[in-house]
Design brief:
Layout (H helix, E strand, L loop, with lengths): L1 H8 L3 H12 L19 H26 L4 H12 L5 H28 L8 H24 L2 H38 L3 H20 L20 E5 L11 H9 L4 E8 L5 E3 L11 H4 L13 H5 L5 H6 L10 H8 L6 H10 L3 E6 L12 H13 L6 E3 L5 H7 L4 E4 L5 H6 L2 E7 L5 H9 L3 E5 L4 H10 L3 E4 L2 H4 L11 H24 L1
Parallel strand pairs: 1-2, 1-9, 2-4, 4-5, 5-6, 6-7, 7-8, 8-9
Antiparallel strand pairs: 2-3
Length: about 525
């Protein structure tokens, strides 16, 4: 009786009414029941459902983190959907908002449940919240499954993100355990059997011990001694500066140069009459106004248009209409007018621009389709433009195409040769490869160091997010290809950079502080 009266003394009726009202829609005192010492916190049905609420919280958190860290590839995701649906929409942003809303919703339910447990109230989740919990759980699991099937490389992105976020995720996990200490301690005290107390406290302490020790196996290239950080990776504009201007246009490349980019990347196709021009997609539908000028040819391959026909297309209005990047901001009036007047750019003009500003160039070459008059002459035509029309300084050209490398090395000595995949160092040196151009998910500080020892540098694409650029910097990358030259140029040092001593202090202080708080909660 004394024990029960002591517990009831701290009951705050208005506060409990709000908690129970939002969680159970039970606003009246007579509708609620207290948890008696030694009794379960809820009915059998609620006991069976509560793990589902916990699962919904965990899965929604995992999906929100996974999708949030995938922001680097949102444009690629939206581009993929454009190819399947036929219209442009920022699906990536919609999914991020939905994931954040659902996680917030289920987190509030978890907080309410923890507060009710701490106040000794029996749990009863209203049926509407149960439906909501099932929806969150179903959405999160199905979304994670879809990502694992349709976007397998995304798992590599998440693993890379752990290399920079793990120390801070560790602090967050410890903070959650401190918050959970109150309801765990309260229910352990209320339990009338030692076995029940062990069942309640045992798993909690096991998880806490695991979190205390997990930094022993943690690795991050951004945790390093002072003075060991390499130079800042050079920035190569991916199709120019496509967050500031229409991709693969003169304006886009000028924006890259204006913001201090070190190189320019593009995609090269050949018109039906043999003019190399810049275009990434197979068709002209996404990046021109072909639906207005040639409405019957929207599905026609870009290479089957003559150069005269291509010159009639506008390559900028789509950019103002679709706003292809999340958070790209608004353009000035002058930039809007300039974007509206962009046209398809030739390879010759692109090379002259790069040469005049002493910028490196790297490009993907697209062989013309079947029945194209230049299908078997395309390399010669491109080399002719590089060597005779533009006369760009040869050391500025990073030659990536691997099909006829020996021929190119013979007729165009002086090019820097790059390979698009990892290979044994002996093979790379045999073919005079000086740079690897790799997708960022292949990033490995060990491989970067191994290739650097053989004087082979590494470039990673496409790196847009500051955390990923910071990881590339800490790992020793020589350069990155990016859509966000204007953002990454301002980063003066890697994010999350710290010395091992600083990290050890942070780790030990976190563990000691949390251990003190948890001990204090259990003691009270």
């Amino acid at each position: 009786v004394v024990r029960r009266s002591l517990l009831q003394r701290y009951e705050h009726q208005p506060f409990i009414s709000c908690l129970a009202g939002f969680y159970s829609c039970r606003w009246k005192r007579y509708q609620r029941e207290r948890t008696e010492p030694g009794k379960c916190c809820c009915s059998m049905r609620e006991c069976m459902f509560f793990p589902l609420l916990v699962a919904a919280f965990c899965f929604s958190l995992v999906f929100l983190y996974t999708w949030g860290e995938g922001k680097n590839d949102y444009n690629g995701f939206d581009w993929y959907n454009y190819g399947n649906l036929g219209f442009w929409f920022l699906w990536s942003l919609v999914i991020l908002i939905v994931a954040a809303v659902l996680f917030t919703y289920v987190s509030l339910l978890m907080v309410l449940a923890m507060c009710l447990l701490a106040e000794g109230q029996q749990l009863y989740l209203h049926w509407s919240h149960k439906i909501g919990t099932f929806l969150v759980l179903g959405f999160s699991i199905s979304s994670l499954f879809a990502l694992s099937i349709l976007w397998r490389d995304h798992r590599k992105t998440v693993r890379l993100s752990f290399q920079v976020t793990a120390p801070y995720l560790h602090i967050g996990a410890i903070a959650i355990m401190v918050l959970l200490a109150w309801p765990v301690a309260l229910h352990a005290i209320r339990a009338d059997k030692k076995v029940t107390q062990v069942i309640i406290v045992g798993p909690y302490l096991a998880i806490l011990l695991f979190l205390f020790l997990i930094p022993l196996g943690m690795y991050s290239p951004c945790i390093r001694e002072t003075g060991t950080l390499g130079p800042k990776p050079a920035l190569i504009g991916h199709r120019g500066a496509p967050m500031l201007a229409p991709e693969n246009t003169e304006m886009s490349f000028l924006k890259t140069i204006e913001h201090g980019g070190d190189g320019l990347e593009t995609d090269v196709a050949i018109s039906y009459d043999g003019v190399p021009f810049l275009m990434h997609d197979d068709t002209l539908r996404r990046t021109t106004n072909i639906q207005e000028v040639y409405p019957n040819d929207t599905g026609k391959a870009a290479s089957f248009f003559s150069w005269d026909a291509l010159q009639k297309l506008n390559a900028g209005t789509w950019f103002l209409k679709n706003k292809p990047f999340v958070g790209m901001g608004s353009l000035s009036k002058a930039d809007q007018n300039q974007a509206m007047n962009q046209s398809i750019y030739t390879l010759s003009s692109f090379l002259r621009l790069a040469d005049s500003h002493n910028k490196l160039v790297i490009f993907d070459l697209y062989r013309p389709p079947e029945k194209h008059p230049y299908r078997n002459l395309w390399i010669r035509k491109i080399l002719d433009v590089i060597l005779r029309e533009s006369k760009i300084k040869r050391h500025l050209v990073l030659w990536l195409h691997n099909g006829v490398r020996s021929f190119v090395q013979a007729v165009a000595p002086g090019f820097q040769h790059a390979m698009g995949k990892k290979a044994p160092i002996e093979d790379l040196l045999k073919h005079n490869i000086v740079k690897l151009n790799l997708v960022y998910t292949d990033m490995s500080s060990e491989d970067i160091r191994k290739y650097a020892e053989a004087n082979i540098t590494t470039n990673f694409y496409v790196v847009n997010e500051p955390w990923l650029y910071s990881l590339a910097w800490c790992s020793g990358a020589h350069s990155v290809t990016t859509n966000a030259v204007h953002l990454l140029k301002d980063i003066s040092q890697p994010l999350f950079l710290m010395t091992p001593q600083q990290y050890n202090i942070m780790w030990i202080l976190t563990d000691l502080t949390s251990a003190f708080l948890i001990s204090l909660i259990f003691a009270l």
